[in-house]
# Entry
Amino acid sequence: MQSTELFGPDPRQAREAVPAARASLVRDLVALTKPRITALVLLTEEAGAWLAPGRASFRARCLSLLGTALIVGSANALNMWSERDVDAMMARTRRRPLPAGRLSPDVALAFGLMLAAVSVPMLFLVNWTTGLLGLVALATYVLVYTPLKRHTYLALLVGAVPGAIPPLLGWSTVTGGVGLGGGLLFLFLFLWQVPHFAAITIFRAEDYERAGLQVVSVQRGEGAARRMVALWSVLLVAASLAFVPFGFAGRAYEGVATVFGIAFLALAFRGCLGASRLDAKRWAKHVFVLSIPYLTVLLLVLLADRGPT
# Structure
């Protein structure tokens, strides 16, 4: 018989377990903030700051970037806390920290509220416009969009508003207000989210239906979701090209936006024009996958090729 069985656990093993538990806790807390989504949001925030006329101080830029990262993390954490019951019923989300039981709901709630308590004042330290925009984004996402998803597919349009606010945070950091360039970025980000998320609802329809979320493919059917992808993609591509005539981008951006726009529209409309022989789930996955480099590349080229402001 081992001595550890006679006298209890090995103290050395107990000491080694503490750092491992802490590391696991940190990983789960970070997972609540959805780091990949946060990184993409920071790119859109930077696009707003870069396109804006003038330059903000180093202090303002740091406060804005960090505040944006933290407020997005707060929104995501509070969303996961609120939807932990829904996440437990979906294959895509059941291994998240809360439904998997690795993290206490009380800890997740406290973490999300703490991030909000830090990030909102931080954005108000930049200026009042940036602070108000951040507060509106957080409140809309957590208090309106998240509960509305259980009732109507139109929640997508509500959720697209806070998703499109980050470039306005960058713009207002520099200018103290909301200008034309910030408005165009807001419109572009708002429209991008509709086909992106409508496509997800097609190849994850069973998951959403099982969880009771009223996304377009569940509430209105797959055909409505396919039409939504196609029609909103037209608006998206039109908005992407609007930066050129208003002087916020040059020929290089126009060329890239045109090529990517044609490719995106061709794929989007295939869901309607070739519906009779379409593998809808496979097509929707292609739309989803293409939408990510479409947004990322256009924003990067826009930053590199901005016109006079």
